[in-house]
Each structure stands twice: as C-alpha cells, then as structure tokens.
Write a structure and sequence with these properties.
Strand content: 15-25%
Structural class: alpha+beta
Shape: globular
Bound molecules: adenosine-5'-triphosphate, magnesium ion
Distance between the termini: 9 Å
Number of strands: 18
Radius of gyration: 22 Å
Length: 394
C-alpha cells in the first residue's frame, strides 16, 4: 500500500514533494485530479483519464496527500478518497473548516485562541429579485458592522474563502465601507454573506507558522516562522510583492499555534497547517517607519535576483537545476545586512508584543517551496510525507 500525491497541475511545490520523496526513499504514486472520470455504479468504482486507468493505483493507495490547489476541488478530493476508504492529509473535516476563514475563526474562538474581532452577516450585498429588481443592502450591512467595530479604527471586508489577498479590502470611513461591501458578490470565493474584521494594527509584517502532527507523535510547531513584510499595502501577501524573512517564535506563540493545530485537526491522527497570524503592535514600535522603509528598500533590491530566478522557465524542464539557482539567489539575499537587520526588528517586535498576537487564517495546503522553505529553512515536504507515511497501517 502506498501514498498517492493527488494534484491538479505539477507546480514547484509538487515537484518539491517528489524530489523530497526521492531523497527520503518514500514511494509515491501520482493521481491527477482534473480530467479524470471517477465513476460509481453497481459494478464498483473506476478512475480513468483519456489515456490511463488509475483504478488499481487508487485501490493500492493507503494514504492520499491532497495537493489539489482549488479549495473546492481539494475538499471534494479528500471527501471522495475518504469514502473510498483512504486516509487523507488533510482530512475532509479539516479541509471543510480551513476552506472558510469564518469557520476557522469560529473553531479557534471556541478554544479561547486569540483572533481578530470578526463579524459575519449572512445577507449578501445585493438581492436580485425574480422581477429583475435589485435590492441594495450595502448601507444596512455597513450599519451592522459599525455597531460592532468603530469605523475610525478601520474595518476590513474579506472574501470568506479567498486567497492571495484577493477581495481583502480596508475602509477607514463609511463611504469606503459601503463601496467595499458593494464589491462583495456571492461567488466561489465568497459563497454567502459578508465577513468583516477589525483592522489589526500590525505594523509592517505578519507571520506564517507551520504546525503539524504525525500519527503516534506529539504535535509540533516549527520554531521559525515566515514573516511577510512591506509597507506597500496593508495586505502583506507575498503575491503582492512583499519580502520574506525567517523569524524565531517565542515559546508561548509556538504553544498557541499547537493549540490551533489540535483544534483544526480534531478527529485526525495526522495533520499539517500553515497558520497566518498578525501582531497588534499598535504604537509599540522600536524603530521609526522612515528608517524601516529605507532598510526594506535596500533588502528589496537584493530580492530582485530571487524574483528573477522564480520566473525562470527552466523550473519546468530542469527542476533540480532551477532549485539550486533559487537557493543560491535566496542565500545571497538573506546574507545581506539589511535582511539581518529587519529580521531582528521583527523578532524583537514579536517578542515584545507576543501577548498581542491573533490568528486569522489556516492554510490546509500551503505553498512552501519558493518562500516558506527558503525563509525558514524548513522543507514542509518532509512533514507532509512523514505525516502521510505515519497514516499507513502496518
Ligand atoms: N483584520 C485585518 N487587519 C489587518 N490586516 C489584515 C486583516 N485581515 C487581513 N489583513 C492583511 O491582509 C492579508 C490577507 O488577508 P488574509 O490572510 O485574511 O487572506 P488571504 O490573503 O486571502 O489568504 P492567504 O494568506 O491564504 O493568501 C493578511 O496577510 C494581512 O496582511
Ligand atoms: Mg492569509
């Protein structure tokens, strides 16, 4: 019985998992999860693409490492595989929770884990009636949100199932708030209603923290997190061109992160999550922003070669060669004194404000090869594979 890597398209993360599996001598089979016909009938189950029959591969699979990128497809994949008697990493229950920021926050909140104040209204911004009439609810929704969060402090509206900072919008006055609410439409990334959140005054960075558990072992939080940092936008997503740093975590935050993992992984013997957290630094800053911007600018220049390698198409034809180039470029960037300086500032800030940390999201299928791995020095493919391996019944 083996581990199947289920994926939509083989990107860097999947290639990284394959490479790591080779290095660890772990057998992997591959399961494309897009143009494949999954059929159930009185004759049983089959899985076929146009050219290949995957049925026996699935029959011989004990554990599915679910790397489908789209949240919907991933949830569907875990559920189907579980119904076929497979163990999954992560389980469909965890996928269901992490799919939605609101569901994630509800679970964390119930366990007493710190989160940003979050308000959900099930009503959509507009209602389209059968007769073609459109009812506008934006102003009403804005009033409901302001009852809970003062607009002067900033209100963030976000797509419940969004990623990459998409449809995460900040308002500092009522007009902006109404306009932002108007942007939310029922869609695949925002299936129902509107989610609002207090603005966490997080200075210039947020954190991505890796927690995982193997069957039969205690859960573990990797003590170095990835900080995403920059002043360009209030969103710190790397997708928006922010820089990344490896940042040591205080023990108390590692423990809280483990508590998050246990909560989100409830019911499973193995799990892995990348938790997003912000620190409500407010005015408790050790250096001024102008100085910091200068340092970030210099570090940003040193990051350009890394971005160039990332775009290099040789990753598709010679992954290992490309990866060596990427690692070399990242090392040059991280050897810079500005990098070291900013990293220290973030570490100090996290330490000083550790009681002000809130968790706001959990990624059940995190991207890791290009940023998290290089910034933290932790190859997430290893706990992914070991977690899957631990689920095989011997
Ligand atoms: N309540 C908030 N207060 C301050 N900043 C926020 C808040 N919510 C989100 N942000 C900023 O916006 C970014 C994106 O928000 P969030 O992490 O909720 O969703 P996402 O970007 O869609 O998810 P992913 O990180 O998986 O791509 C965060 O990393 C953070 O920098
Ligand atoms: Mg996020």
């Amino acid at each position: 019985m083996s581990i199947a890597l289920l994926y939509e398209r083989s990107e860097n993360d999947e290639n990284g998992i394959k490479l790591t599996a080779q290095q660890l001598d772990i057998d992997l089979t591959f399961l494309p999860f897009r143009k494949i016909a999954l059929s159930i009938s009185k004759d049983g189950f089959s899985a076929k693409t146009k050219g290949k029959d995957y049925t026996s591969i699935i029959n011989d699979t004990a554990v599915v490492l679910n790397r489908a990128q789209s949240k919907n497809r991933r949830l569907q994949a875990s559920y189907i595989m579980e119904q076929l008697g497979k163990k999954t990493l992560n389980s469909s229950q965890s996928e269901f929770v992490c799919y939605s920021k609101l569901r994630t926050l509800l679970n964390l909140w119930k366990e007493g884990i710190p989160i940003p104040k979050t308000v959900f209204v099930p009503c959509d911004s507009t209602d389209n009636l059968k007769n073609g009439q459109v009812i506008h609810n934006e102003k009403h929704l804005a009033e409901l949100f302001q009852q809970e969060i003062p607009i002067l402090d900033g209100i963030v509206i976000k797509a419940d199932a969004g990623t990459h900072g998409k449809m995460v919008m900040l308002a500092k006055n009522v007009e902006e708030l109404v306009a932002n609410i108007g942007e939310t439409k029922p869609s695949i990334i925002n299936p129902v209603g509107v989610v609002a959140q207090e603005l966490v005054q997080k200075w210039f960075y947020d954190l991505r923290i890796i927690v995982h558990k193997e069957k039969g072992k205690q859960p573990f939080c990797y003590p170095v997190s990835m900080a995403r940092a920059g002043f360009k936008d209030f969103r710190t997503n790397t997708f928006l061109g922010n820089l990344v740093f490896g940042v040591k975590l205080p023990r108390s935050i590692q423990e809280l992160a483990i508590k998050c993992g246990r909560t989100l992984g409830k019911g499973s013997e193995a799990w892995i999550f990348a938790l997003d957290a912000m620190v409500n630094v407010k005015e408790n800053k050790q250096v001024d922003d102008a100085y910091l911007k200068g340092e970030l600018d210099k570090a940003g220049k040193a990051f350009v070669p890394v971005q160039r390698v990332k775009q290099d198409e040789t990753r598709l034809t010679d992954f290992q060669g490309w990866n060596s180039k990427l690692e070399k470029a990242f090392k040059c960037y991280a050897d810079n004194e500005n990098y070291e300086n900013i990293k220290k500032i973030i570490e100090e800030s996290v330490e000083k404000n550790r009681a002000e940390l809130v968790f706001h999201e959990s990624n059940s299928c995190p991207e890791f090869w290009e940023n998290t791995r290089l910034a933290t020095g932790y190859n997430v493919a290893i706990p992914l594979l070991k977690g899957a391996l631990s689920l095989i019944d011997h």
